[in-house]
Structure prediction request, 1117 residues.
Amino acid sequence: MPGRTLQADAAALRDKVNTQVPKILEQAQITTANHQKNLVALHKLQEEAAQCEEPLRKGRGVKLVGEKIFEEAVLQMLMRVLPIKKGVVQADRVVKFVAQYIRFVNEKAGEARNGQETEGDDEEEPTASRFTARLLKFLFKGFLSKDKSVRYRVLQTVAEMVSHLGEVEHGDELSRSEDIYSELRSLLLDRVHDKESTVRVQVVIALSKLAGSDDPSDLEDGEQTILEVLLDTLEHDSSSDVRRAALLNIDVNSETLPIILGRTRDTDTTIRKLVYSAVLETNVTVKDTEDMGPTHPRAFTIAQRESIIRNGLGDREPSVRAAAASLLGAWVDAVEEQIPKDEEEKQGVKVESGLVELLKMLDLNQQEYPVDAVMSIFVSRTEIFDTMTFSSAYWENLTPETAFLARVFVDHGRAIDEGDARLDSVLPVVTEMAFRIQAVYNKLDDDITAEEEARLLQDLTEEEKTKYEDARLADEAIIGELLQLAVNLDYSDEIGRRSMFQLVRDMLSKERLPQSLLNKCLDVLRKLSDNERDLIRVVVELVQDLRDRARVDDEEEDDPAKDPDETPVIVRPPKPPREKTAEEQQRSDNIDLKCLLLCIGMLERVNGTLEDNSTLDGILQELIIPSVKRKEFIFREKGLISLGLCCLIAKRLALNTLNLFVGQALNSPEALQTSLLQVIFDVLMVHEADFHRENEEIFPGVVAKLIGLLASETSDKVRALLCIGLSKLILAGMITKDDPVIYLIQNYLSPMTADNQELRQCLTFFFQVFCYSSPVHQETMRRIFLPTYKALKENRASLDDGDEMVSSAQIAALFLDWTDPHKLRQAVDAQGKTDAKHQANMSVQLDLAIDIVRCLLKGNWEKEDKKVFCQMLGKLHIPDDAADDKVKELKVLMHALRSRRPIRDTTTNNSFTKFETAVAKKFEKQLEDFSEEEYRKLEQLEELFEFLDSIIPDDDDDEISIDERRRKGKKRRVSLLRSESIMTTTTENEDASSVGSSRWGRSKPRSKRPRLSKSDAESDDDDDDEITELPTPPVPTRTLPKRSAAMKKPPSVIYVDSDDDEYTPVPRSKQTSLARVKEDQDLDAELDAMPDTTFDSIMDADSQDEEEEVNDLLAED
Prediction:
């Protein structure tokens, strides 16, 4: 009875479980709102099932009958979900419910275990651990399923429940649980390279939850940790979905941040945005606290902060720029909370924005990205800009950061509407600003004087030198920011304008003014000058005053007792440079260098001609030209730049000095080459019409020399500058020849420029603009395709080992894209250009097809090249309304190729046949009554048929047509090659023709036989059915017979008669005997033909080497 009772209870439980579990899961798939209720119901059902146990015999334990019934029911229902494809919401809800149930039962088991520990009861393995282990083992079977949907659902389930697998490691089953964990880890690492991206996403999610429990000490040498695998996936996986999953699930810390920051340059826009919004911004502070998080600005280095700001604010997508601006706002809030109130009062600005503290963490010497950062904060956080105020204490305690903030504040105010009124309310008047600048400049002058005196009186320590240098650089930075701020001030107040003008002029006249402030002073001076002539006059006066003052000071040092008010009778000429002392020469050089920098800055800010500003002639003759002639590099460089700037505003000077610049550029060091090339291209762009009008030979000669420099071994920077300059000249229509474009393509595809990102980026943009801007440009690309292809092929052949270059197929694909008339039409339509000049030539690729077939007719192309050309033909766009003459010309060329230069490679021939069939089908009506004879009578096609008639057809004997091959079967001619596999009586030093003559004789025709073996080269040409005729046998010469001991057993040779369609195989034994008889006959004939000469041996007495060779052969045999 008890046995029957247990069986009845088990049967009843099975019915109940099989009824309740499907209902619970059915409700769970409808909505997630009822999951909590169903979790409780399913748990109660499991507890009830766990009570059903069957005791084993002799008290060895119990059999968990109820748990097994429950597990089988759940797994049976889960199996129905696994084959469902991704995207079915009901299946997703079931998977989520199962994962929630694992967490629920493990939490309940944990509570029960805690209660047992409190009561002191013996701890037993909970039901939850057994159920979790059973479920995992079941899911492991699906990891290697061939069905991608099963793999996806299995890994989705594991990824959802893997966070709660720590509860499995409990009690006596610890070792088993560790085995389960190791197996899970191994299977997940194998699936990280699954071919389906959806599967890899779930693997990444699961691995990220296991990464925290990964112990590197348990791994073998060289084995990657889970974190390293995830970082590698984040960096290199081809799927953006997988990279996104890795980004969102990897822990953010000092180890992972460098890889995460690299994703700010990811190709996927969403990933770049998530780096800023979901990773960096959310981890600025620790969650629910104000503690510094892993992405707090203070946690980064200056280089990392610069990279984050540059990449984010410089992104092409507005959404990424907005996310980066939001991150900067979070940084401002984070550093604001750490600023003491007394510091805020000292700065005199409302630093609740935290901008000053943030600026202290940036490199303000790099002007671009700190400005973009502050500007973006002003735009995204308008309340910061609206509430900022500047008190007198702010201007009295200026630092480089506060001065920078004030300058950007003014720039932003001028750029927005109603910003002027805001600036007027917070900025001091111009006169007060001039006094502020004067005060800081006086402080700078005092600091320089104090440093010079300290250096004279004592040897400064490194710390003292650093202190003086930091103070000087801080003063320079403050003055520079205030000068940039002064450019945007309102100078309607005449008194303020005069005060600022006099201040800037005095500063420029000082010898101690740092070079970094010259251009900023000139900007203010240009703002205050009435016109360009006034600016030029002031700068020329400053230059003359500086040079005269230095000359006068030198004279006063020579005669210190001279009365300055006394009128000299005789004016002494200035001392030549060789008579000056080292200190005097150094001071004179410093002044000349400053004057050159003033001239460069002034010339960069004017557009008037040299003829309209005669005051520049004196500077040109007295300062610039002598500097060009000097041997010192710095003076020659600045002098050439100044001369080049003068050429931009002086046509005659440019015509006379262009060759000078080109000659200097060819032989100068890299630092000077870059400046000279910029000058050359600027002069060519400005005076191009004058060069053609005055002397047409100058411009082509200069371009040829520049191309020659590009072809030489130059640095990456110079090469990039040359490509940029030539690209501009080509786009402007100043260069119309094909050679420069070919050279640009060669540099674009050369492996030498693989790391030259500036060049690659420039030329990528150039070729798209060039090809999709005019049909003339596409015609140029069509015309240069074959010469460029040949040049690149030669370049590839000359590469060193290890260098890689784009393949021939990739080159063809590029030209297909560049000559695509549809892309030209789209670009022209987008720009609204409707004139005939910009209309796309839809037949440009038809002309390219004609060129390709012509080149195939000319021959001299390798098998791979022919394959590329024929495959390219099938991808060309042939318009339906193509001109009849071009279609018929293409037809004639294809027919000639078939008849005179047949393509033997099967793959290549199939591609050409496909193209030929497509052309015939598309233009069936136009080619219906086509006759080549009538076409030959047209005068305009005389050149075409002359070209075709000049093509020498392939030898008919070398070609076997398809029909002929079917008739003759295996019959073919072969050339006789010397080989040890064929029995012969000739010596090793004889050629192949001697073998033929000695074997068959001269009068008897030779029969054909199939080749037994082929060399590598012959095997490659086998597909082409290449046939080689037998050479004419020469007169028999003396031969040395081999001893019978040295003769090897010949292989079986099957002779095929050249005239009969069938042949009869000869038995092997008869073949051998016949061959030996034939060999003996040939040997006798050759010996009879030898002259009567007496020898002591069968070998020549003078040929000891031959005797030793024969002996060696006998020994080997």
